[in-house]
From TrEMBL:
The lineage of its organism: Eukaryota, Viridiplantae, Streptophyta, Embryophyta, Tracheophyta. This is Pentatricopeptide repeat-containing protein. The keyword Ion transport does not apply. PROSITE patterns: PPR. Keywords: Repeat.
Amino acid sequence: MVLSSPADFISTTPRFNSKETLIPKCKQTFSWNLMIRSHTLNSNPHKAILVYNLMIIRAIPPDKFTFPFLIKACSLSSSFRKGREVHAFAIKTGFYNDIYLHNTLIDFYFNSGDSALGRKVFDKMRVRTVVSWTTLVAGLVSCGELQDARRVFELMPLRNVVSWTAIINGYARNQMPQQAFELFRRMQLHNVPPNEFTLVSLLIASTDLGSLRLGRWIHEFARKNGFQLGLFLGTALIDMYSKCGSLVDAQRVFVKMENKSVATWNSMITSLGVHGRGEEALALFVQMEKAKMQPDAITFIGVLSACVHTGMVEEGCRYFRYMTHRYGIAPTVDHYGCMVALLTRAGMLGEAYELVNAMTVEPNDDIWGVLLRASRLQGDADLEEVAYRKFLELDIVRSDMVADVLSQHHSNESFKWEVG
């Protein structure tokens, strides 16, 4: 990439008011690096990039400490074009052969979806640390290249807890729970103590197996080894207990957690709803608001799902409106799906169809499938025909459930033709 002028450095960056960012008044590179680092670590990556742009415009020379946090800022803000530009400038200024920069670049390219460049950076490294190898493994896992990730993992000259956790997490999140537990067993044989994220991955694997016994064993393992109920471990335990059928244990974990994230509240609200405790789910949502916790789109999927499972139509409609009016959350296809399910289960086919026609996003196969099945079960032949034709317009691979609905639709057509 050719950088012809200082203006090139800001061409790919969002504009900010300079008053919003504290700019070092001195000309020492250290001070500018410190500001870039501070913004990056405090979730202000765009401001970190802005500081860098001003640094270049003011002819403050970068050093090898400038680039790693800057590349991380580009990754966090999805400023992938900017990141490539910075990579090129690091090469031009002679600071490319820095191991910390290489490790950050590997992570950056995998986050951008360019696994080929991530591998290329790794392959060209003269010296590789355990962090370099682990970053490659985690990157391959994130891009769905699990087989290659395992091959690299087995080639590692040295592994730490992060390395083991990265590959275990890969298997757990790709519905391969047996392999996740086999690797954990190997990890123990190598005397590598797990961390909180290792246990979270194992809880995901337990949930996939539907094994309450394994989930409880991991919980007990955590207690015996001094793990606190942190945000990630606690939330994973709530999710595991709920999905494995023990709502009581999920509630106990929730109550014991001293600190709760939005994801923690979401998990408990959803768990109550799925287990048919809709009123408790809505009461917990009220508690969440009283705790000054800002709900997100996923929160309201849990709230609406609770209404669906318990048939609370009025409450569901109210929260559907409340979501947008109070918090400015635009309905997604999942929110609409909950509402269509809620209305059709209540026999309100006309209202459900009106909502589908008023959707601000394109209805998917799940929504048309629900409407199709409901109209068939409730004997609305006209709406069934409309839903059926809309469904056929979608270029999708249909699930077994919907394929069964289509099959029954054809059976109904044949029946009507024979007696006609």
